């Protein structure tokens, strides 16, 4: 954690030990890789990705990037020279030709002199931007059938994207914002944008918009991290500075663990980021590794580092107080890595607490075992397949009952649900589904009823959401009990949808609801 260096990585511990750090930039079982030299200043990883996704050879990719750098500089200069007559610019599909739109004849000569191709248009880009700004201001009036809007410089219009059958909604929205018909084009596309915020071990997060720590492991409803990173009530944002969640529980000193409960925009994933090459590594359980085992950690400051487990049940005397029950390793770490994930193979081991040294000289680092965190807080680890992992007992005692067998279909009898509309799906801990079919339905107002049936061992939250002020907002919520979640609510006319969030277990469910 950057804010408090003495409680994060870099503290001096009471007992010194081995200080050599293994800094293999990959997870256990992989050979370390040397960075390939850049070509024309471009990293080989970028060229490889362009080759994969754009079907380019390395030479073609380098040539395209050179043209794009020239185009960027040329557009900057022409935009200043053309002023209000500048209508936008774009590269051809092969990246070889730069076209610049101009709203007057005088600008055409300037564009040709700069080596680009001019195109006469009816209006400058500033006028189009003004139209889009009016749509932005009226965005709360857009129906959920409208996916968005943008300036299309190639067509010299503002485009409103509407789902099939909702083109009239798009035109009404544009007219309500005071837009001229000739300047706005409605495009039909089967798009349903949604936030794509994943919770992944090793990712950075910020506490109260100040200190930075790292995510440990995804659990149902949020993630675990270090206790010294925050206190109950502290708010978190992701590395993208988007509101993420709240510290629901924390313990430090004595222990060094915390649970952050995330909001509905974030989806806990059973993976850990590998900052050595940008990939992710699956988490498939939390079986505790023995002393001497290889172990790797991921943190938002120094990425992935590996070493060996040296001792368990270690006590560390931090300046803020003593912490017991930690695991000692010869892996290096630095401030900001606090709370990050530790893996042995694909098994979760713990979250980074503190240590001595750094990743330049090497050091010793301690982690809080993850199974203790799960048991103390009654949390369920989210694994790569979306299946909740059975909690492993901590070293030295305790037993865990075997996981219950989950039947493939909802039980019969009074747990069956019936309604005007029925949908089914498969849910797992940490996963979210939207019904019906990822979309929404409209009702004229009045009473709405819903019933969700799930198998034994599957626990879910069912939410009814109404589209209000440009977003779906929860108006009613129920958590399943004995395999059933029921909702009855009076509501106004509008667009609604159901959101099914898995809390524990996995299996098929059936949702029946009224849509009158």
From TrEMBL:
Keywords of the record: Disulfide bond, Hydrolase, Protease, Serine protease, Signal, Zymogen
Pfam family name, one: Pro_Al_protease
Domain Peptidase S1A alpha-lytic prodomain per the UniProt entry, residue ranges: 123-179
Keyword Hydrolase: yes
InterPro entries on file: Pept_S1_alpha_lytic, Pept_S1A_streptogrisin, Peptidase_S1_PA, Peptidase_S1_PA_chymotrypsin, Streptogrisin_prodomain, Trypsin_dom
Organism domain of life: Bacteria
Keyword field contains Metal-binding: no
Signal peptide span: none
Domain Peptidase S1: 223-374
Membrane-spanning ranges: none
Region of interest (Disordered), ranges: 384-415
Protein family: Belongs to the peptidase S1 family.
Name used for this protein in its record: S1 family peptidase
């Amino acid at each position: 954690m950057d804010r408090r260096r003495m409680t994060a990585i870099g503290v001096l511990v009471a007992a010194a030990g081995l200080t050599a750090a293994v800094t293999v930039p990959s997870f256990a079982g992989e050979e370390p890789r040397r960075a390939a030299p850049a070509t024309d200043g471009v990293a080989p990883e970028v060229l490889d990705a362009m080759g994969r996704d754009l079907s380019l050879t390395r030479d073609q990719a380098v040539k395209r990037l050179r043209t794009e750098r020239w185009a960027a500089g040329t557009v900057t200069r022409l935009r200043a020279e053309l002023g209000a007559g500048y209508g936008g610019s774009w590269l051809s599909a092969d990246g070889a030709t730069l076209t610049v739109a101009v709203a007057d004849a005088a600008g055409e000569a300037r564009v040709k002199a700069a080596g680009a191709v001019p195109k006469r248009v009816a209006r400058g880009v500033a006028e189009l931007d003004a139209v889009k700004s009016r749509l932005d201001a009226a965005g709360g009036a857009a129906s959920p059938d409208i996916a968005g809007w943008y300036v299309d410089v190639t067509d010299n219009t503002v485009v409103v994207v509407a789902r099939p059958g909702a083109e009239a909604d798009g035109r009404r929205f544009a007219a309500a914002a005071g837009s001229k018909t000739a300047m706005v084009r409605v495009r039909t596309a089967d798009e349903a944008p949604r936030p794509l915020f994943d919770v992944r071990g090793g990712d950075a997060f910020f506490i109260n918009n100040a200190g930075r720590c790292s995510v440990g492991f995804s659990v149902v409803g949020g993630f675990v991290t270090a206790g010294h990173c925050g206190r109950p009530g502290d708010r978190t944002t992701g590395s993208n500075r988007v509101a993420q969640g709240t510290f629901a529980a924390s313990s430090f000193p004595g222990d060094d663990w915390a649970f952050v409960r995330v909001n509905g925009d974030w989806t806990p994933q059973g993976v850990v980021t590998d900052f050595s090459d940008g990939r992710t590594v699956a988490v498939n359980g939390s079986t505790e590794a023995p002393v001497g085992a290889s172990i790797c950690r991921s943190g938002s400051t120094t990425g992935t580092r590996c070493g060996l487990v040296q001792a368990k049940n270690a006590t560390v005397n931090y300046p803020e107080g003593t912490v017991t029950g930690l695991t000692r390793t010869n892996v290096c770490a630095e401030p900001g890595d606090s709370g990050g994930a530790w893996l042995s193979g694909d098994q979760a081991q713990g979250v980074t607490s503190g240590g001595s040294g750094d990743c330049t000289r090497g050091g010793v680092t301690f982690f809080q075992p993850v199974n203790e965190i799960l048991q103390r807080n009654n949390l369920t680890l989210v694994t790569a397949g979306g299946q909740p992992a059975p909690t492993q007992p901590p070293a030295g005692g305790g037993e865990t009952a075997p996981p219950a067998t989950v039947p493939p279909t909802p039980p019969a009898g009074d747990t069956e649900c019936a309604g005007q509309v029925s949908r089914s799906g498969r849910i797992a801990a940490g996963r979210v589904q939207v019904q019906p079919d990822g979309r929404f339905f409209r009702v004229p107002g009045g009473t709405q009823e819903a019933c969700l049936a799930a198998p034994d061992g599957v626990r879910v939250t069912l939410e009814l959401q109404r589209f209000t002020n440009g977003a779906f907002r929860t108006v009613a919520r129920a958590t399943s009990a004995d395999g059933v979640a029921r909702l009855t609510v009076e509501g106004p006319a509008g667009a609604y949808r159901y959101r099914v969030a898995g809390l524990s277990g996995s299996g098929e469910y059936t949702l029946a609801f009224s849509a009158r």
